[in-house]
Amino acid sequence: MEADETSTVAADSAKQSQMLPTIEAGLADDSARTSGLLVQMTGITKRFGAFTANDSINLGVERGQIHALLGENGAGKSTLMKILNGLLRPDEGEIVWDGETVQFESPQDAAKLGISMVFQHFSLFENLSVLENIAAALPGSIRKNGFNLRRLSKRIEEVGEAYGLALSPARPVNSLSAGERQRIEIIRALLRDPKLLVLDEPTSVLTPQEADALFVTLEQLAQKGCGLLYISHKLDEVRRLCSKATILRGGKLVGECDPRSEDVRSLAAMMVGTHVPEVRSQALHKIGDVRLEVEALTLPAPDMHAKSLNHIMLTVHGGEVLGIAGIAGNGQSELFAALSGEILAPQARTILIDTMPVGHIDIESRRALGAAFIPEQRLGHGAVPNMALSDNLVLSRHGTDRLDRYGMVNFRRARRLSDEVVSKFDVRISGKNPLASSLSGGNLQKFVVGREILARPGVLVVDQPTWGVDAGAAVAIRQALINLAAQGAAVLVISQDLDELFSISDRIAVLHEGSLSAALPTGQVTRETIGLMMAGSEVDDAA
Amino acid sequence: MRLELVPRASVSPIVRALSPLIAIMLAGLMAALVIALMGRSPVAAFDIYIREPLGDSWALQEMGIKMIPLTLIATGLVYCFRANLWNIGAEGQYTMGAIVGSILPLATQGMELGRWLLVIALVTGAIGGALYALIPSYLRVRLGVSEILSSLMLVYIAQLILDYLVRGPWRDPKGFNFPQTVMFDKGSMLPILFEDGRLHAGLILAIIVVVASTIVLGWSLFGYAIKVIGSAPKAAGFSGFSASAISLTVFAISGGLAGLAGIVEVTGQIGQLKPSISAGYGFTAITVAFLGRLHPLGVVFGAFVVSLTAIGGENAQIMMKLPLDLTTCFQGLLLLSVLAADALASSSIRVVRTPNKEA
């Protein structure tokens, strides 16, 4: 069946006269009402075994409303959205859509009513064009009725223009920035003529300027009567964009409010349940000698989807946190790999740890010199999912912690050290030594960070330390990084989260298209400047 | 409607330990059904397949003889499979081990050089197999060639080389034109363990290999690295393990053990090279490795079950006129059951209903 439909796409592209009936009808339909209750979820309860993920939650979205759904990781947001999207069925409760009680058997049912989702992680074919990616994901009903690619291409441009989503249909996806990729997802959703659009953390990969452009689009959509459900951690955005917020904590509904009349701290307090601790800076530490230095590092892209690094220069002193801002895909992974030694540099002298040239030696040799590394990806890079925590401790510490004796691993000692990480870094686990994959994102990240910090490194390089981590864990991790610097270590933090960088870094540099700007003291630079630099404007202007 | 496997949050160790036993019982029941459908008595078949070989010294020794190469090869394969590398060419490495290991014994035939020659034969056989396995591994590491295809195709090359040698330059001049070499000297043959029996000292080698591999895979940093590479290659790089070095090493170990199995088979019981030195051991060992759930001790169990059914199958063919293919069928059922039991022990099945799409 799938194959048939695909061939229909190709065959029909020749038929000029064919239209895109559903799409045309949908977007042109101005007669739809633009206010009133669109969907009401009442008493939604979902249990997984003994665990209640959603406990009689109510959520109503009106037409033309941008409604925020707030909550930490594990608060039950995803479960609720999966229920709304037809991926899960609630144990109790009902969904009323446009005055009628509905039951979703599958996501197709939800899609038919006009519920569209834009996910946090893009699902795009790297080697296909924008147009091909959109055509591949069109709903079956449109494809079966036949359409042609040229008309679709025109539609994409029209929709793009109408909503300020400039995007050339012919461009291959692998040449696009994260912001542009997200536009594909949004246009995909818009072509389905959504009445309710659900956006999951849409700005996590955008520059402040790109996020602004997205907000304009979303406001336009709302004005046309589309209901929007906006899932986010970023409270500033929610206050700016949303007229109503529903807050979940621990699977329960804890409150509804108008975020515009609340301040960030009160919203955060509702989300976390207690007063949110802030990162305390360690005032008394002094900046010491240069411990990590990168001197004119140039590295060709290791494969076609990677970025090359151009003449990177940076220094990190002992006692200092250097933040590297930038949008994902601008060379962060490559820079991390070059610093860690997972990719070797062409010349030894391009990277120096405590003045020792290390560009030519591998990650274990760099660890032996007192460096530690925390990669962006927890599962599969920083930790092995199907291994117990104690086995995962061996991963980065077998060489430096006397775990390896005559080629044999001292698993007992590994277990002791891993228990130490668990208790000192407040890693919440079920069971005594669980598999890494059974931990929540925040807890596993605390484990990985704790594992490296308890190795007492002199130089720590960390990529996206709090990506996808709940607010409580994020604060703990940031505090641990600052404390490590205060003890005299040089800490280099690569992050997309500007709030994070501003709260922990002493200096900030921006990575754009594989080139790194000069590092500026955090106190002397504004978010707007950094944002412009992230988008690639001249670094000199910013200084 | 479709089915999904959902990982279980926790798996009780009892379930894990019992699952292969349940699998064997289920496979036995299915086999009994097949035999019943063929109009024979499943009870009598059970008697001949399982009970009789276990109570007979001759049959037990024959089982041991089959278990030796299967255990050696499958233990080697465990190294590769754990690292997520698919060496399908153990049969070729086995053949190459037999050929290379035979060079010296054949060249010095008639000189009765004694035990040292045997040791050299075993070592060169293992080296032959290891070098032959390094071909697909090197191609994979350097050029990204799929090791599955290249190792498999090298099987046929090795077999044809053997064929050429025993029909051409190495043929026994007094062998009535049979495709075979001269018989090895008595001194370059592996000693027999029991008087008047056939079980040879290869058994001791197999035991040493299994014990050593259990230790290496379970407790050494190398064994740890293999596991990491197999489940998360990027984490292996983060840990400082070189993927190419480990890939080459596990292939060399795997090929070396297969080569050792080849020369052990030749010096243990055949005593000469001929085209039929293997009963498909290299391929059967893949089944054995998975029956043993990629653990050296499990491999012994897997080799035992496969050998038992092979011997029992021969008996059944003679005494009940059951086709020998039934044995292969039973081994297939067994593998399927063991793998399914393993999957079902760690995951549960969920039925996902998908409504029919209307046109």
Write a brief structural summary:
The complex is a heterodimer of chains A (543) and B (359). With 543 residues, chain A is an alpha/beta fold.
Q: Keyphrases for this structure?
A:
heterodimer; A: alpha/beta; Rossmann fold; 2 domains; seven-stranded mixed beta sheet; six-stranded mixed beta sheet; 36% helix; B: 359 residues; mainly alpha; 13 helices; 3% strand
Give the topology:
The complex is a heterodimer of chains A (543) and B (359).
Chain A: H1 2-12, H2 21-28, E1 37-48, E2 51-62, E3 66-70, H3 77-84, E4 92-97, E5 100-102, H4 107-113, E6 115-118, H5 130-136, H6 140-145, H7 149-162, H8 178-191, E7 196-200, H9 208-223, E8 227-232, H10 235-241, E9 244-249, E10 252-257, H11 264-272, E11 290-299, E12 309-317, E13 321-325, H12 332-340, E14 351-353, E15 356-357, H13 363-368, E16 371-374, H14 389-397, E17 404-405, E18 408-409, H15 411-424, H16 441-453, E19 459-463, H17 471-486, E20 490-494, H18 498-504, E21 507-512, E22 515-516, E23 520-521, H19 527-534, H20 539-542
Parallel strand pairs in A: 3-8, 3-9, 6-7, 7-8, 13-20, 13-21, 16-19, 19-20
Antiparallel strand pairs in A: 1-2, 1-4, 4-5, 9-10, 11-12, 11-14, 14-15, 17-18, 21-22, 21-23
Helix pairs in contact in A: 14-15, 14-16, 15-16, 16-17
Chain B: E1 2-7, H1 13-37, H2 42-54, H3 57-82, H4 90-107, H5 115-143, H6 147-167, H7 202-219, H8 221-231, H9 233-239, H10 243-270, H11 281-291, H12 296-320, H13 325-346, E2 347-352
Antiparallel strand pairs in B: 1-2
Question: Could you explain how this protein is built, in words?
Answer:
The complex is a heterodimer of chains A (543) and B (359). Chain A is an alpha/beta fold and 543 residues long. Chain A has 2 domains: 2-272, Rossmann fold, CATH 3.40.50.300; 290-542, P-loop containing nucleotide triphosphate hydrolases (Rossmann fold), CATH 3.40.50. Chain A contains 20 helices and 23 strands. In chain A, β4 (92-97) and β5 (100-102) form a beta hairpin. The longest helix of chain A has 16 residues, at 208-223. Chain B has a domain at 68-296. Chain B has helices at residues 13-37, 42-54, 57-82, 90-107, 115-143, 147-167, 202-219, 221-231, 233-239, 243-270, 281-291, 296-320, 325-346; strands at residues 2-7, 347-352. Chain B has a two-stranded antiparallel sheet. At the A-B interface, α13, α14 and β18 of A face α8 and α9 of B.
